[in-house]
Amino acid sequence: MPAADELQSPTSEMVLLTPNTENPPPSLVAGDHAEKQANGQGGREGSAESDSSRVVMKKQLGLLEGVAIILGIIFGSGIFVSPKGVIQEVDAVGTSLVIWVLCGLLSMIGALCYAELGTAIPKSGGDYAYIFEAYGSLPAFLYLWDAMMIFVPTTNAIMGLTFASYVLEPFFGGACHIPKIALQLLAAATIIFLTYLNSYYMKITTKMQNIIMFTKIAALVLIIIVGLVWMLMGNTENFSRPFESTQTDPGKLSVAFYSGIFSYAGWNYLNFMTEELRDPYRNLPRAIYISLPLVTGIYVLANMAYLAVLSPSEMIASNAIAVTFGNKILGGFALIIPVMVAISAFGGLSVHIMTSSRMCFVGARNGHMPAILSHISVKSYTPLPSLVFLCFLSIVMLVVSDVYVLITYSSIVESFFIMLSVSAVLYFRYTRPCMERPINVSLWIPALFVVVCAFLVVVPIYVAPYEVGMGVLITLIGIPFYYVGVVWQNKPKWVQQAIDSVTFTCQKMFLSAKEEKKD
Q1: Looking at the record, which segments are called Disordered (predicted)?
Q2: Number of other CB atoms surrounding residue 229 within 10 Å
Q3: Which residues pair with 9 in a beta bridge?
Q4: Distance CA 381, CA 199 (A)
């Protein structure tokens, strides 16, 4: 994995094998496939751009698909399963709702910063691309290391297990424990199926995500309406003393903020796919401006509905708040809730698989991952090797007994990298004042976000020092891999030949080729 000096210009030393131009294998010739598509012989949903002889990913995401991606990630299973993380730290209904509002405002502030970054640096890869552009190769590699080794596969595994548990629950009943192997097998099958769908049928995938987005919103609106009706019937005793017994400990408040922010996580994921977004200068910020206020309003109202029906102690005792809510108030219609949770987890997993593969692809394109991961399928024009690689890592995480612990170790590190990404707005204002910025946010916006994130990163150091230390250790382990894989370019000939052989073998296996750039 030789180094790359510029994000937009991968070096010629990168091991990006392409077919022999004199006698190319038919299966790897993008032009032949594109010609077949033009003659009606193409068989896949993905397609090339108007210049069909080039192997590139198509700009096939519009505003609706952009909104669906953001909402699909944010409206995962979290809002249905575990909003108790806030209430159990602050011990007060009113304070809990205030934190949900503040977390939404913080997410909107961060999203505004990402709108500027995404239009000023219109490249896929999200945080990785911005950190690379601002701070160089090593910080970007360490973010990619954490993301590919921990953040992405563990999130995929947890979302897959959540979906599996809600699908299998009716077959085992409340009194019977679901076998762990059954959960793992169904989660693995789901991850493999969605990886296949994202690999070969992008149009079907995006349409499915649009439908699931509206389904999730409908489910949350149902919860909100039921909660409001319950309150209008006079059941407001849970709000009689909203701020009584509020916790004021900074550590507990920061942990409560983390729980809230975790539920809003995903507002920056559309930036991972900027290069596939039609008219990104308009659609990227518009998708953000539509999604974040909508999410904040729905989250606050949904939590009001939960708190109207369930007491704080009932919320803390529940492992799936929406299901407990439904069982208490919906009667025979309570089955709707677990179905909706399963659909949400399924849709969220699909979006996460799609977006995270683009970060892996961009990292490989810049020499920070094995070269084969920067290749594109010549049939579907998707980053097929990256999708398969992350699918494999996600399935490995399914058999790791303490996968949730890995997420805990890395969550603070991830917050640090998000802070680093947003700080790039301030950095570029100072170092590149003439940089073209289609969106130009006020300086107080990124400054405020960085200050709040710094607080949320520093405070847990004394609240949970072991978890913070493990997260830092996981990150530092990536440094030797950086120097061996990226910095060390004069590898022995036999090592380079082995890398070339593996790359070309995988290239033939995946029917993939190096992305072709415009002249």
Answers
A1: 1-53
A2: 13
A3: 6
A4: 8
Nearest residue to 357 (alpha-carbon basis) of 376, 342, 379 = 376
Q: What is the dihedral of CA 56, 204, 122, 155, to 10 degrees?
A: -110
Q: How many CB atoms lie within 10 A of CB 48?
A: 23
Look at phi and psi of residue 179 and say left if phi exceeds 0, alpha if psi is from -120 to 50, else beta: beta
In a domain, 292, yes or no: no
Distances (CA, A) of 342 to 110, 212, 347, 475: 29, 11, 9, 33
The Cα 365–Cα 375 span in angstroms is 8
Q: pTM score, two decimals? A: 0.79
Distance CA 326, CA 225 (A): 12
Q: Spell out, as residue ranges, where the chain has pLDDT lower than 50.
A: 1-52, 519
Buried b or exposed e, range 78-92, using 16+ CB within 10 angstroms:
bbbbbbbbbbbbbbb
Predicted confidence at residue 175, as pLDDT, reads 55
Distance CA 227, CA 7 (A): 49
Its sign, for the CA torsion 123, 128, 130, 133, is: negative
Q: CA–CA distance from 469 to each of 151, 251, 464 (Å)?
A: 16, 17, 9
| Cα 189 to Cα 171: distance, rounded to the nearest angstrom | 18
The pLDDT score that the predictor gives to residue 391 is: 94
At residue 125, what are phi and psi to the nearest 5 degrees?
115, -15
Is position 151 within any domain? yes
Pairing of strands 375-377, 512-514: antiparallel
CA distance to 46, 52, 161, per residue, from 357 (Å):
16, 23, 20
**118: nearest Cα among 133, 137, 135, 140:** 133
> If we measure between CA atoms, which residue out of 63, 62, 73, 65 comes closest to residue 351?
73
- Decide if 116 is inside a domain: no
On whether residue 456 sits in a domain, the answer given is no
The secondary structure element, H or E, covering residue 377 is: strand 375-377
Measured between alpha carbons, how far is 132 from 480 in angstroms, rounded to an integer?
Answer: 18
Residue 134, SS3? helix
Nearest to 517 by CA among 8, 1, 5, 2: 8
DSSP tag of 248: -
Q: Which of 107, 16, 519 is nearest to 300 (CA)?
A: 107
| Structure confidence by residue, pLDDT tens digits, 300-309 | 998 899 888 8
Residue 467 confidence (pLDDT): 80
Q: H or E stretch including 69?
A: helix 63-74
Residue 277 bridge partners (DSSP): 61
Rounded Cα–Cα distance for residues 184 and 157 (Å): 9
Number of domains in the chain: 1
User: What pLDDT digit, counting tens, does each position of 68-115 carry?
Assistant: 888 888 887 667 766 777 888 887 888 888 988 988 888 888 888 988
